[in-house]
């Protein structure tokens, strides 16, 4: 798995000094990987880092999301 993956984006045009709130919804599939042996999508429980910025090298906003084993075992994203 790559260290960083783009899972959502929104293009926003701002004037100098202007600010805007943007929401990006991440569905379960954003945290899943395809298990070739099982032939299905799976989520590994644990901590996922959420990075926000205007490029992969400029990510000033950071947070974590914890996915429990119970949540990871749900297969809502088939």
Structural description of this entry:
The protein is mainly beta and 78 residues long. The chain has a domain at 28-73. The protein is built from one helix and four strands. The protein has one helix at residues 69-73, and strands spanning 32-35, 40-43, 46-52, 61-67. Strand 3 (46-52) and strand 4 form a beta hairpin. The longest helix has 5 residues, at 69-73. The mean pLDDT is 90.
SSE pattern, N- to C-terminal: EEEEH
How widely separated are the two ends?
A: 20 Å
| Parts with pLDDT < 50 across at least 5 consecutive residues | none
Count helical runs: 1
Radius of gyration: 15 Å
Q: How helix-rich are the residues, as a percent range?
A: under 10%
Side by side, the strands of the main sheet go 1-2
Shape annotation: elongated
Structural class, from helix and strand content? mainly beta
Biggest sheet layout: 2 strands, antiparallel
| Mean pLDDT across all amino acids | 90
Proportion of residues in extended strands: 25-35%
DSSP, total strands: 4
């Amino acid at each position: 798995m790559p260290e960083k993956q783009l899972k959502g984006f929104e293009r926003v045009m701002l004037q100098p000094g202007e600010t805007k709130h943007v929401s990006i919804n991440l569905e379960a599939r954003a945290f899943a990987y395809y298990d070739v042996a099982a032939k299905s999508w799976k989520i590994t429980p644990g901590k996922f880092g959420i990075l926000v910025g205007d490029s992969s090298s400029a990510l000033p906003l950071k947070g974590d999301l914890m996915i429990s084993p119970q949540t990871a075992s749900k297969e809502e994203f088939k």
